[in-house]
Each structure stands twice: as C-alpha cells, then as structure tokens.
Automatic annotation (TrEMBL):
NADP(+) binds at G126, A127, G128, G129, A130, I219, G242. This is Shikimate dehydrogenase (NADP(+)). Homodimer. Involved in the biosynthesis of the chorismate, which leads to the biosynthesis of aromatic amino acids. Catalyzes the reversible NADPH linked reduction of 3-dehydroshikimate (DHSA) to yield shikimate (SA). Shikimate binds at S13, L14, S15, T60, N85, D100, Y221, Q249.
Length: 276
C-alpha cells in the first residue's frame, strides 16, 4: 500500500517512522513517504500528487484547511472542526477526516482508564485549530463542564459559542482567570505551541493551586518534557505527554485507511525513548 504525508516543511516529521511500524505490524507491504508541496503552486502540486494514486495520506501545516476544496467528501467531525489531517482514497474519491481530537481522547482513555469524562471539569489552554479538535472530541465523549482559556479572549468566546449546547456548562476566560481558578479542574490540556523549541522554557500559566490528583496534558511533544509538564510533575500532577496523542491520532488514521486498529502501546514507549 502507498501512504504519505503532504505539508511544508515536513522533513522532521515522525509520521513515516510511526506508520512504517503500523504497516509492518499489520503484515502489509507498503511505504509511507513525504511529499513536500509548494504553497505557491498548491493547485498544480495537488493535481500531480493525486496522479500518484496513494491509498491514503496525512495532511499537516500549512494545508489542513487548504486541502478541503480538493476533497470529494468530508467527514462530519472534520467539517465541524474545519481542518483535515487524514485523507482516504477510494477509487480516486478523496474523503477527508480529522483524527487529532479523537486521537487525544483515546490516548487519555488509555492512560487514565478510570477517569469518567462525563463527570470531570476540563480546562483547555489555547483556542486554535488543535484546541478546536480536542474540545469537539471531548464533548462528543460526554464532557460538558469545560473552560477554554486563551491569550485572546475573543477567540475562546467564539469557540465556546460554536460548540455550546443546552446541556453543557462552558465558559471562556483569560489565562489570568485560568490561574485563579485552577483548583477547580480535573484535566488541564495545553494546546498552544508555547513550550516548543526554541522557546523551551516558556510556560503558558503557572500551576499553583492545582487540584490534588489532577491530570495535566501538553500536546507539545518536542521537547517531550516541556517546562509546563515539569512544573506539573513538581506539583504532584499526573502527566500526559504529547507523543501519546501523536501516536493515537496516527493509529486512528491507519484504521481509517485499512480497517485495522494498531496497538499504540509499544510504539509510545519506543517514541518516548527516541524523543528523550
Ligand atoms: P494550532 O492550529 O496549532 O492550534 P493556531 O490555530 O495558530 O495553532 O493557535 C495557536 C494557539 O496558541 C492560540 O490559542 C494562540 O493564542 P491567540 O489566540 O491569543 O493567538 C496560542 N498562542 C500562541 N503563542 C502564544 C503565546 N506566546 N502565549 C499564549 N498563547 C499563545
């Protein structure tokens, strides 16, 4: 089978390593390759790429929205989120999906199986594309007490407005508000790029007053141990690393392409070593 990734730049991507393993474990013969498409000639590049007839591919920055007009169909979740990271090809018909949110939820469920998503209070830090996917997936799994804190309050308010239902208790707040009310939350999810190299020491909010037993998650995986997670660990929190979501969203993409759900457990441990 032929799989791949489109984006720009993508030479640093871990996806080939992850998917090559899934291909081998599933007993298939195939390859997952990188296709760096140029932004200036995106239309022509996509047309030429389509000729290659890949069975499926992932989409990363800066094309998660730009790919949408080239699809024949779009899955409902991806449509609501407004971004596609996975495309399946069936006889030349391209269907777009977004596996980030569900990948996040599956990785949380795997690491914290006793956590009852219907009962917990969740704080999401950031209101960009990644936050949108995660908030949508959490709500689909029954989370209805959720706050979104963002540097730009309006963006958080817009996200709440888009996803709010009659049953949910959702609120938008500033990062300062989040620090003040931190003790109310059972799960805190850091979805911004703060903490990524090179500004590795940055930390989006301080974690004083964290609730006992709270889970703190950071979707950044390079570095694996962000300043935010280091602080969380010091304060006694249970930790959820970004590479866990990375592997689970890839596993879900592989499942969409093949119908086979890989077991991410082994790979997560290996990736941890690789990134440490
Ligand atoms: P992604 O698709 O990866 O989520 P994005 O859509 O550009 O990326 O969203 C970036 C998120 O990170 C936003 O919530 C952004 O806050 P603003 O809406 O205020 O821009 C947040 N963010 C980025 N850099 C930040 C920083 N230095 N401090 C706080 N928040 C930051």
């Amino acid at each position: 089978m032929k799989l791949g990734l489109i984006g720009y730049p993508i030479s640093h991507s871990l996806s080939p390593w992850i998917h090559q393993r899934f291909i081998e474990e599933s007993g298939r013969i195939g390859a997952y390759e990188l296709y760096e498409l140029e932004l200036q000639h995106f239309s022509d590049e996509v047309a030429a790429f389509k000729e290659l007839g890949l069975d499926g591919f992932n989409v990363t920055v800066p094309y998660k929205q730009k790919i949408i007009p080239y699809l024949d169909r779009i899955d409902r979740e991806a449509e609501i989120i407004g971004a596609v990271n996975t495309v399946k090809n069936e006889n030349g018909c391209w269907t777009g999906y977004n596996t980030d949110g569900k990948g996040f939820v599956r990785s949380i469920r795997a690491s914290f199986p006793t956590m009852d998503l219907k009962r917990i209070r969740v704080l999401v830090l950031g209101a960009g594309g990644a936050a949108k996917g995660i908030v949508h997936a959490l709500m689909s799994e029954g989370v209805d007490r959720l706050a979104i804190a963002n540097r730009t309050l309006q963006t958080a308010s817009d996200l709440i407005e888009a996803f709010h239902t009659n049953h949910s208790q959702m609120k938008a707040m500033t990062l300062a508000d989040a620090e003040q009310t931190l003790g109310e939350y059972d799960l805190i999810v850091q979805t911004t790029s703060v903490g990524m190299k090179p500004a590795v020491d940055d930390q989006i909010i301080s974690l004083n007053g964290l609730k006992k037993g709270a889970v703190v998650s950071d979707i950044v995986y390079q570095p694996l141990q962000t300043a935010f997670l280091t602080d969380a660990r010091t304060k006694g929190a249970r930790i959820h690393h970004g590479h866990e979501m990375l592997v689970y969203q890839a596993a879900y993409a592989f499942e969409i392409w093949t119908g086979v759900r890989p077991d991410p457990g082994l790979l997560i441990n290996e990736l941890k070593v690789k990134l440490s």
